[in-house]
Amino acid sequence: MRVLLTGHQGYLGTVMAPVLAAAGHEVVGLDAGLFADCVLGPPPADPPGHRVDLRDVTAEHVADVDAVIHLAALSNDPLGSLAPELTYDINHHASVRLARLARDAGVRRFLYASTCSVYGAAGGADLVTEDAPLRPVTPYAESKVRVEDDLHALADGDFSPVFMRNATAFGYSPRLRADIVLNNLVGHALLSGEVLVLSDGTPWRPLVHAADIARAFAAALTAPREAVHDRAFNIGSEINNVTVAEIAEQVAEAVSGSKVVITGETGADPRSYRVDFSRFRAAAEGFDCEWTVKQGAVELADAYREFELTRDDFERRFTRLAVLRAASDSGAVDDTLRWRP
Ligand SMILES: NC(=O)c1ccc[n+]([C@@H]2O[C@H](COP(=O)([O-])OP(=O)(O)OC[C@H]3O[C@@H](n4cnc5c(N)ncnc54)[C@H](O)[C@@H]3O)[C@@H](O)[C@H]2O)c1
Q1: Could you tell me which of 56, 179, 193, 341 has the fewest CB atoms within 10 Å of its CB?
Q2: What does the domain layout of the chain look like in residue ranges?
Q3: What is the DSSP code string of 217-279?
Q4: Could you give the maximum distance between any two Cα atoms of the chain, in Å?
């Protein structure tokens, strides 16, 4: 298939592009390149791509494309809360526009990167299925719910949106993010000797390796239409349904000499959900995640050591919010986060 991969220069896109290529697909990227230089380790070999803002996409970008994988977004809760209106412009309106253009151009499958954050403060011991009520607690998560609703309305006999509700990602990507929980805790542990948990550690936070997300999207591309058409899927694995305290323990084991510090305060983030991932395993027969949290912590610690992660890079270069703030302060981007000419 010829696949348009938006967000191909992000954390997940940089891992996904080679997985799709290895599966035999022709990948064309599309990204504004906001984090293109946020690289840890050898520079990635990006597929050919369009350097364009999602809000400026035209019919040309979706011409001759069989499927779209849509990752491009302001990608986390703090970013969304910083500029809610931008989050809705980019994550919601521009995504729905892209989907309409794709449908009009005859694209048959549209895989949308949603998130388990749509379940919000689901709490409790029960596993959350895709049919659970959606309780987004941030503009970021709300934007994902709105896109799911609007794409659902576009589904028809020729156009199949698929809602991939990813757990929180972890693991090494050449375009690293250090602002997601496991990647962050491993960095703290190495740089300070402490695995610092700024809460009581009790929230459930299911995790999934970036490479497993990439394999899941590759599987969803070729799964039978009737198995995935207009359906939501939780992407992850029950073995990685962990509390933040458990994540911290795994990190302390992976980074020798580090110790867990749980501050015990009420965390700022009310999200807590344990998730059932069986629907996707059934739809994409043979799919299962390969990575455990422990393996990911070891992999990250090795990569951080090998590529000599510095505190400055950890706090600025690999933290999405800090990168955008710096680009805005320096005038590189305008107040709508578009590059200035
Ligand atoms: N990483 C996770 O834990 C996680 C979990 C669930 C869902 N997701 C979703 O997966 C997707 C990818 O996440 P990620 O971790 O790779 O994030 P990321 O921030 O690393 O990548 C997002 C990419 O989108 C691009 N982008 C942002 N705004 C754009 C715009 N206006 N025009 C064009 N490109 C733009 C950025 O340049 C970047 O390359 C996002 O939609 C995110 O919400 C991520």
Answers
A1: 341
A2: 2-329
A3: HHHHHHS-HHHHTT-EEEES-GGG--BHHHHHHHHHHHSTT-EEEE--SPPS-----EE--HH
A4: 57
Q: Ligand 1: which of 4, 5, 12 to mutate, most ligand atoms within 8 Å of CB?
A: 12
Output DSSP code: residue 93: I
Q: Is the beta carbon of 173 within 6 A of some atom in ligand 1? A: no
Each residue of 55-113: pLDDT tens digit? 999 999 999 999 999 999 998 776 767 788 999 999 999 999 999 999 999 999 999 99
pLDDT at 80 (0 to 100) = 67
Distance 75 CA to ligand 1 centre (A): 4
Phi-psi region of 313 (alpha: psi -120 to 50; beta: other; left: phi over 0): alpha
Average pLDDT score over the chain: 94
Q: Tell the residue nearest (CA) to atom 43 of ligand 1.
A: 75
Kindly state if the Cβ of 184 falls inside 6 Å of ligand 1.
Answer: no
**DSSP 3-state of 62:** helix
CA distance 71 to 94: 12
| Residue range 13-22, pLDDT digits in tens | 999 999 999 9
What confidence category does residue 287 fall into, taking pLDDT thresholds of 50, 70 and 90?
very high
Distance 257 CA to ligand 1 centre (A): 33
- pLDDT of amino acid 273: 84
Site to substitute for ligand 1 among 4, 75, 273, 291, most atoms within 8 A of C-beta:
75
Here the tokens at position 312 are: 């400055």
Instruction: Report whether 282 contacts 154 (CB < 8 A).
Output: no
C-alpha–C-alpha distance, residues 214 and 123, integer Å: 28
What beta strand segments (E) does the chain contain? Answer: 2-6, 26-31, 49-51, 67-70, 109-115, 127-128, 160-166, 168-170, 194-197, 207-209, 232-235, 259-262, 274-275
147's enclosing H/E stretch is helix 139-154
Q: Is 34 in the pocket of ligand 1 (CB under 6 A)?
A: yes
Q: Which CATH class is domain 2-329?
A: alpha beta
